[in-house]
Please model this.
Amino acid sequence: MGVAVPPLRITRRAEFSASHFCRRAEWSEEQNRAVYGEAANPYGHGHNWVVEVTLEGEPDPVTGMVFDLKALKEILHSELIEPMDHRFLNYEVPPFDRIPPTLENVALEIWRRLEPRVNGLGCRLHAVRVYETEDYFAECYGPRT
Amino acid sequence: MLRAADMIVTRRYRFSASHRMHSAGLSEEANRAVYGKCNNPFGHGHNYVLEVSVGGSVDERTGRVVDPTCLDELVRQTVLTAWDHRNLNVEAAEFAGEPVSSENLLRIAWRRLASAVARAFPHGPRLVRLRLEETRRNSFEMMEGDWR
Model:
């Protein structure tokens, strides 16, 4: 009789610094200010964004690892750091030319970028947690299977 | 049920308050034995951190699960004004003789915030998690079941 072993999760943290604003072009100044407050300032403002990426899977019987963290580091670099670090999200990082880079939309976009890069390689993307500040963060768990 | 665009959004709040651990159901000796220095009759204080997490779908119009300003105001009215810079044993009537433990604080906060969030956002996000840090070293958490 085996013991039931719960899933194993590994998390890596990445950080990037980027500016953004939250506005919808089709809304008036008043509407944008009412919904987004100071975040609607059209000149933008910046954050040190912190991203925690959690993968779930079985440790490989040979390597003993769920996922190669060096490979994950490279994926985070190419999908997040390279395109987003020291950038103005609204002007330089699609799809934020079309949708406002709110905390939630940034988390969803990071999920979309990472999921195809890690799923199927012996693990699955479990969670993406994005901190806009240390007092404001969002967690994305993707669709329920 | 969790959908693709469902997520949890969290804000962290701070309040400073004093309390004393004491149970009416125990003798003076037993209180001292159970709670140790936390039973000091004059009380002591903490810088509490309360993490409030709401879960729901992202509004396609605003790109948000919740307006953080609305959530801030709700938490301020519901919890922070009652507890910040207060002596919880003396001024927080809701304990009604129960020990002023972080566990009980968390449960009271849950009941208040869950109904306040439901009233404020009838079709929107709901309270899914509360986490209370009494100090950097001690924290307490309650979470609704169906989030992975």
User: Anything to note?
Assistant: The helical segments of chain B are 28-35, 68-83, 88-91, 102-120. Chain B is about 30% helix and 30% strand. The mean pLDDT of chain B is 91. The first strand of chain B starts at residue 6 and ends at 19.
